[in-house]
Amino acid sequence: MSEEDTGTAEIPVPSDAPRQAAGTWGELFRPGHLTASLVLAGGVAVYAMNTFITAALLPSTVADIGGAAYFSWVTTGFLVASVLASMLVARALAAWGAARAYLVAFLLFAAGSLGAGLAPVMEVLVAARVLQGLGGGLLAGLGYAVIRSALPERLWTRATGLVSAMWGLGTLVGPAIGGLFAQWGSWRGAFWLLAVVSVVLGVMSVRGLPAGGGAAEDIGRLPAASLVALVLAAAAFSVAAVVPVGWPTAASLGAGLALGVVFVLIERASASPVLPHIAYRRGNPLKWLYLVLGILSAAAMVEIFLPRFGQELAGMTPLVAGLFGATVSVGWSGVQLFSASVDRPRTRRRLMVAGPVLMTAGLALFAVTQRADPSGVEIALWVTGLVVAGAGVGIAFPHLSVAAMHSTDDPVEGAKAAAGVGTAELIANALSSALVGVLVAVGGPGAAGSATMGAGIAVLGALGIVAIALGLRHLPRR
Length: 478
Fold this sequence. Notes:
Layout: H1 25-28, H2 31-65, H3 73-86, H4 89-118, H5 122-145, H6 147-150, H7 156-183, H8 187-208, H9 224-240, H10 247-269, H11 286-300, H12 306-314, H13 318-324, H14 327-339, H15 345-368, H16 376-405, H17 411-443, H18 447-474
């Protein structure tokens, strides 16, 4: 998946400060800064890899301890907890300082990983993943927030690039690690490995990071009411995936949608909302930009089930199925590197429209080619469709993020709008992971469930085309 800005403060570089010689990559890894660099990068790396490791392990996990009905809950619980924890990053730094905040985050993640590795039933695994998510949400946010206090200013740019690169590393390494452990018949061992790495990094954080942290000012009130509504909405969607298909499913989905409306109403009236105030103003494009970003992020949530369908329908080995599960993220990461270099305003607007179009087309291709015992050509079409869908995300994502910054001329609100991109993505991931589980449950076992999943998220992509058209109407041409 892409890098996530979890709503923590940006790292400012004072314009009136004397210019310094730029730091080098070599300096970042010298003894004086090596431990801090490894902790900052390692925290984001274990969070990013964990997503793909877990997706690759889940088919083997279900075969061992059962609980197939709770398949999507394993990811949804982790993501919802991550959203909640990401809101606490500034408070954790103010209360504990960088070293202890990181130690708490790593220990929470390690405890959750250990619990997941020992889980006798799926319900325990879900609970352990929630604990893991609390630690992971802190790690994802701290990775950016602590750069300023842990390293000299001349290394901030290099350090930010290093932390950002860990999301790509997760895409490449996570599926392979998860697939290998699944193929070795030791899915629990992968979680134990994450626990050991987390403990080691936690010890390093105490030794390599400053005891002091961020200041307590401007933290704002915790948006508790908004977060409660968000958690309940995600829970309602998750319940829809396990109740009998029919009116219970419809009732759960209806409750989830209603709670989503409640979330928006609370946000609009709140003095301290999760998302910036301007997102709820009439005529401002930010709400449409966030909606499109969320819809594009939902494409990556099909990866929760891809290793399972790869094994069930195509007879892939656990390792190959784990790699197959990262196809959307591969398309996303690869294309984003080139798309981010586009500067012409007209081309940027076209790419923002092309994103949901490619996502819709790619997932539609995946959906219509689903069947058991597919031929090599059909598997190639699956991969092509998923990579195209991921390319749609990568081609539009950086420009939607920049457009969010330009959604207002107020520099303070613009900074909040930029920080809200990561928050909107985390919220969308939490909700859409539950929605994917609903689509699979409604579709039924085998190829029908896979096709329903692809078709349902393709429809969501089509809604994204409408949303970006509405957003571009109000977005200034720059």
